[in-house]
Amino acid sequence: MGRWKPDARGRLAKAALELCTERGYERTTVSEIAARAGLTERTFFRHYADKREALFGGEVALREAFVEAVTDAPPSAAPIDALAAGLDVIAGLFAGRREHVRERHALIAANPELQERELIKLASLAAALADALRGRGVAEPAASLTAEAGVAVFKVGFERWIAPDEECELSRVMRDSLDELRALTAGDQHPPSSNVRPADPPASSLRDP
User: Fold this and answer.
1) Do 113 and 138 reside in the same domain of the chain?
2) At a CB cut-off of 8 Å and minimum separation 6, what does 60 contact?
3) Which residues, other chains included, contact 97 with Cβ-Cβ below 8 Å and sequence gap of 6+?
4) What CATH number has the domain bearing residue 178?
5) Which domain holds residue 128?
6) Terminal CA-to-CA distance of the chain, rounded, Å?
C-alpha cells in the first residue's frame, strides 16, 4: 500500500487545473483528475461536486478572508477603508502564485461554463461583503454600492496583475486601482496613476474604432 499523502483537496484542485489545461476542460473527466492526484473518484466527490468546482476550490477561503478583514477593520474606518483592508489581506493569498493564476485565468477565459461560474463567485463575494458592511452599521444602498465597488476594484486589479508586462505585486496594483476609484468618485478627472496629462487627448480617442 502506498504511503498516505495529505491535502487531498489541494491535490485534486492542482490535478484538475493541470489536466484541463493540457487536454481542455470539456475533454477532462473526474476519473482522470482523481487518478492524476493519486486518489479515487469517491474521494473526489467527498471534496467537490464536479470538475468545475475543483477549479474554484479557493473561493471559500478568499471570501472568508476578505469578509473577516472588513469585519475586523477599526470601527472608525470608513466603508471604503474597511474594503481596502480586505483587499490587502486577499492580495497576500496570491503571493508567489502569479503564473499559476495566469494559467487558471486563461482556462476560465476559454470556457463559457467557467466564465459563468466566475461571475457567480464574484456575485457571492459582493453579497458577503455587503452583509459585512451592514454588520458594521453601513446602511443601504451604501453597503451594497461599496461592496460592488470593492469587487470591481478586485477584478480590475487582478486582471492588471496577471497581464504579461505587469511586474508590481498584487497589493500595489490593488491599492492603485482603489486610489483611481477614490479620485474618480471625488470628481478628479485625472486619477494619480492614470498617467494622463491635461493636454493629452481623451483616452477614448486613442483606441481603434
Assistant:
1) yes
2) none
3) none
4) 1.10.357.10
5) 59-187
6) 64
Rounded CA-CA distance 157/136 in Å is: 25
User: What does DSSP assign to residue 206?
Assistant: G
Are 12 and 47 within 8 A, CB to CB?
Answer: yes
One-letter amino acid at 180 equals E
Q: Quick check: 157 and 173 in contact, CB under 8 A?
A: yes
57: nearest Cα among 66, 44, 65, 48:
48
CATH number of the domain that residue 35 is part of: 1.10.10.60
* 59-103 pLDDT per residue, tens: 999 999 999 999 999 999 999 999 999 999 999 999 899 999 999
Domain count, the chain: 2
Residue 1 lies in a domain: no
Residue found under cell 508586462: 165
Q: Which of 33, 54, 75 is the last residue of a domain?
A: 54
For residues 68 and 171, membership in a common domain is answered with yes
Which residue in this structure is represented by grid cell 467527498? 46
* pLDDT tens string 116-169: 999 999 999 999 999 999 999 999 999 999 999 999 999 999 999 999 999 999
